[in-house]
Design a protein that fits this description.
Epimerase_deHydtase, NAD(P)-bd_dom_sf, three-stranded mixed β-sheet, four-stranded parallel β-sheet, 15% strand, 265 residues, NAD-dependent epimerase/dehydratase domain-containing protein
Length: 265
């Protein structure tokens, strides 16, 4: 939020990774766009490339279930509308000389990740899981992205000689869980027990939403757990070959280790 500090930090780097969000999903309407504006100003001033880890919030069910980069963006939520506005500002910045790379992906998980469904919904950080709380409907597919794979994907895209390309968007395939059971089974295997699965208490979230801002934000995203949305990574594979892809069992184990939910060894 401090434009001068962002400018100072961006004086030398060739790449600015805009991987920031307001903590706890709060105050998106006040903070998100000024944040990206400060990054854009710094990038235009120094000639740096802006890299944005994108999300699926931009999309509404009108383009589900298999979504390409150029699909229409008709978001259902406030965060989705803001995400669309962010990307439009980045497109405008590219016309002013910035280079922009957006990599959209499914729900993030990984060691020491910030706000995410895996570490705040399915399990609890610092505790050995006694059960798995799953937000999705039975039989509905869901897309996950392991953060180290996302980072490697961005690095490979940046390594290509693309001096004349100012604005690019790619979709990651990540880990597609066709019915929700793959992630559950991976957690069970990492913990070493057949953990029971509990339904996420959406009714409590809905009732408490007026008093708890975080619950209101979570409630808005429920549609992504009730309808399958899978990102089409055809363009990404054409650009870099096979997408970086850590096996799910390994990715989940490393994530649980980082969250303090299991012990190493």
């Amino acid at each position: 939020m401090d434009s001068h500090a962002v400018a100072r930090a961006s004086a030398d780097p060739a790449v600015i990774v805009h991987a920031v969000n307001p903590p706890g999903y709060r105050d998106w309407d006040r903070l998100v766009l000024p944040m990206i504006d400060n990054t854009i100003a710094a990038a235009i001033a120094t000639g740096a490339t802006i890299v944005l880890p994108g999300t699926v919030y931009n999309y509404g069910p009108d383009v589900f279930p298999f979504v390409a980069e150029d699909a229409a963006q008709h978001p259902l939520t406030r965060k989705g509308i803001i995400r669309v506005a962010m990307e439009q500002r980045l497109r405008d910045a590219a016309e002013k000389g910035a280079r922009v790379l957006i990599v959209r992906a499914g729900d993030f998980f990984g060691p020491h990740a910030g706000n995410n469904w895996f570490g705040q919904g399915l399990v609890k950080p610092g505790k050995i899981p006694r059960a798995i709380t799953y937000p999705g409907k039975s039989g509905i597919g869901h897309q996950w992205t392991y953060l180290p794979d996302l980072a490697e994907t961005m690095a490979r895209l940046l390594e290509r000689p693309q001096e004349d390309v100012r604005f690019e968007r790619f979709h990651m395939g990540g880990h597609w869980d066709p019915d929700g059971t793959a992630m559950i089974d991976a957690i069970r295997a990492a913990v070493g027990r057949a953990l029971p699965v509990r339904r996420f208490p959406w009714w409590i979230v809905r009732l408490a939403a007026p008093a708890v801002p975080l619950f209101g934000e979570l409630s808005e995203m429920r549609y992504l757990w009730r309808t399958p949305l899978q990102l089409d990574n055809t363009s990404l594979k054409a650009a870099i070959g096979n997408e970086p892809h850590t096996p799910l069992a390994e990715a989940v184990r490393e994530t649980l280790l980082g969250l303090g939910c299991i012990a190493d060894g």
